[in-house]
Amino acid sequence: MPRFTPIFAAISLAAAAGACAPVVATQGFQAVDAKPQDVVAGTDTKETVLARLGSPSTTSTFEPETVWYYMTQMTERYTYNTPQVSQRTVTEITFNKADDKVAAVRTLSLADGREIAMQRRETPTRGRQLTILEQLLGNVGRGQLPRTEEDVPGQRRPD
Questions:
Q1: Res. 138: pLDDT tops 80
Q2: Looking at beta carbons, which pairs linking 67-71 to residues 24 or more positions away fall under 8 Å?
Q3: pTM
Q4: Over 80: is that where the pLDDT of 14 sits?
Q5: Which percentage of the chain shows pLDDT scores above 70?
Q6: CA proximity to 68, closest of 88, 85, 53, 83
Q7: Which of 23, 34, 91, 156 lies 20 to 30 angstroms, CA to CA, from 130?
Q8: 98 alpha-carbon distance from chain centroid
Q9: DSSP codes joined into one string, the chain
């Protein structure tokens, strides 16, 4: 038995050390041959950017033809914790409207982002709020009355 104790301790330490390694995930644009930061303003055009990088992650809401965004994000997750963003890169490429050449290339990182505090308030709806009893018994008595010979099919009897 004493002979297996060091082996068991070594296996336990290896398993514990392996459990501390984060699970790394990459989302968004992944550069294969070229990076978005390698685009040169004034020489590259829309066609060369599309050929080199592919389609953008998203475009500008108000100027979709002139501003393109390439976004990449890496997250790390330890065991059962929520994922934490460890690295984020957003490259904004702006084109001239006249000749479709690159006017500017701007790279933003995780440090350039801002935290937005979410509000827990709710927008009130119009009307009155029903109690549980009103919800359960609200339709009692509103059903169709039994049909007679003088009823027209599909119409409700007058009360």
A1: no
A2: 67/92, 67/93, 67/94, 67/95, 68/92, 68/93, 68/95, 69/93, 70/28, 70/29, 70/36, 71/28, 71/29
A3: 0.61
A4: no
A5: 83
A6: 53
A7: 156
A8: 34
A9: -TTTHHHHHHHHHHHHHHHTSPEEEEEE---SS--GGGPPTTT-BHHHHHHHH-S-SEE-SS-TTTEEEEEEEEEEE-TTSPPEEEEEEEEEEEE-TTT-BEEEEEEEEGGG----PPP---PPPSSPPPPHHHHHHTTTT-SPPPP-TTPPTTSPPP-
What does the alpha-carbon distance between residue 89 and residue 111 come to, in Å, rounded to a whole number? Answer: 10
Residue 12 structure tokens: 């336990």
Average pLDDT estimate for 12-28: 76
